[in-house]
């Protein structure tokens, strides 16, 4: 069974080495979708230009065009670990997301996404995430339940008026002399395209990192981001020599192996002043990371 989601669009940018056809660009831009699937959809006239004209398999690539398509995914199995609703009122909903569950539909995930499951369980079609977590990251996600007040909660993130904390279990190749770091760097798209990297230039990403406990070759860290760049915490942890346990993108992209734990990164806390009621809000995740060892406070270890 194939599930069809709403119409999506893709702008064709100016590229240094453009492909010969739009079909070739689709195959390269969406590597998780089999090339034959894109070819079949083009042959079924399901990929169109803005005026509704269907593209062909030999349609030349032309930057500046926008193409339209309906996202299709095969019927999905149920989520292995369900989400939890921690709080709900007339304006917001706070959910505790498991590892491996995307917040919004993407790629092969539609019914297993947090947004779809919450809309189905609450009946709130107007539900909308105020911020995002990576699919691999577990923990707290704030949703708007009221379109009329949604902009007020978005502004909390725009003005950095919300306090976010994460916990991470990371590899320690050597004892760390430092217990605190302030990382300010410039993060841009890396290679492959779905990764990020630190480059020279004006900083656009900021994270405060604290080593709070240690055990053998692992450490438990508290991370407080000042910005929200893609993969920011994973890249900043790597920059101090402490890649997060379960990370299959950093330091190198690799295939998952049997026995790999989920990415040991948890959005553990949200604190903010409710812009509607004026009340102070504080939420903590009920989920736990896999420590696999007895951790001691970092200040108790020489």
CATH class of the largest domain: Alpha Beta
Number of separate strands: 15
Radius of gyration over C-alpha positions, nearest whole angstrom: 21 Å
Shape descriptor: globular
pLDDT average, as an integer? 87
Poorly predicted regions are 1-5
Secondary-structure arrangement, i.e. CATH architecture of the largest domain? 2-Layer Sandwich
State the helix count: 5
Structure, described:
- This protein has 302 residues and is α+β, with helices and mostly antiparallel strands.
- The chain has two domains: 72 residues, Structural Genomics Hypothetical 15.5 Kd Protein In mrcA-pckA Intergenic Region, Chain A (Roll); 217 residues, Pseudouridine synthase (2-Layer Sandwich), CATH 3.30.2350.10.
- 14% of the residues lie in helices and 33% in strands.
- It has five helices and 15 strands.
- Strands 4, 5, 6, 7, 8, 9, 10, 11, 12, 13, 14 and 15 form a twelve-stranded mixed β-sheet that branches. The chain has a three-stranded antiparallel β-sheet with strand order 1-3-2, with no helix packed on it.
- Strand 4 and strand 5 form a beta hairpin.
- The relative contact order is 0.12.
- The N terminus is likely disordered.
């Amino acid at each position: 069974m194939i599930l069809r989601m709403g119409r999506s669009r893709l702008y064709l940018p100016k590229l240094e080495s453009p492909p010969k056809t739009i079909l070739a660009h689709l195959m390269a831009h969406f590597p998780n979708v089999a090339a034959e699937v894109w070819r079949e959809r083009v042959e079924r006239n399901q990929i169109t230009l803005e005026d509704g004209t269907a593209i062909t398999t030999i349609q030349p690539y032309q930057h500046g065009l926008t193409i339209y398509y309906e996202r299709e995914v095969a019927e999905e199995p149920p989520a292995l670990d369900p989400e939890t609703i921690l709080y709900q009122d007339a304006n917001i909903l706070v959910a505790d997301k498991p590892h491996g569950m995307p917040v919004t539909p993407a790629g092969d995930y539609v019914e297993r996404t947090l947004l779809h499951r919450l809309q189905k369980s609450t009946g709130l079609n107007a539900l909308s995430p105020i911020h995002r977590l990576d699919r691999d990251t577990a923990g707290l996600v704030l949703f708007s339940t009221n379109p009329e007040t949604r902009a007020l909660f978005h502004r909390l993130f725009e003005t950095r008026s919300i306090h976010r904390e994460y916990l991470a279990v990371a590899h320690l190749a050597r004892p760390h002399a430092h217990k605190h770091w302030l990382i300010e760097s410039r993060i841009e798209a890396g290679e492959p395209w779905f990764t990020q990297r630190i480059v020279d230039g004006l900083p656009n990403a900021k994270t405060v990192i604290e080593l709070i406990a240690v055990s053998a070759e692992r450490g438990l860290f508290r991370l407080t981001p000042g910005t929200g760049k893609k993969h920011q915490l994973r890249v900043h942890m790597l920059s101090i020599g402490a890649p997060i346990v379960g990370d299959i993108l950093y330091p190198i992209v690799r295939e998952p192996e049997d026995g790999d734990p989920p990415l040991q990164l948890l959005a553990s806390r949200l604190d903010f002043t409710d812009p509607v009621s004026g009340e102070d809000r504080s939420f903590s995740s009920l989920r736990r990371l896999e420590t696999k060892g007895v951790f001691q406070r970092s200040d108790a270890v020489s």
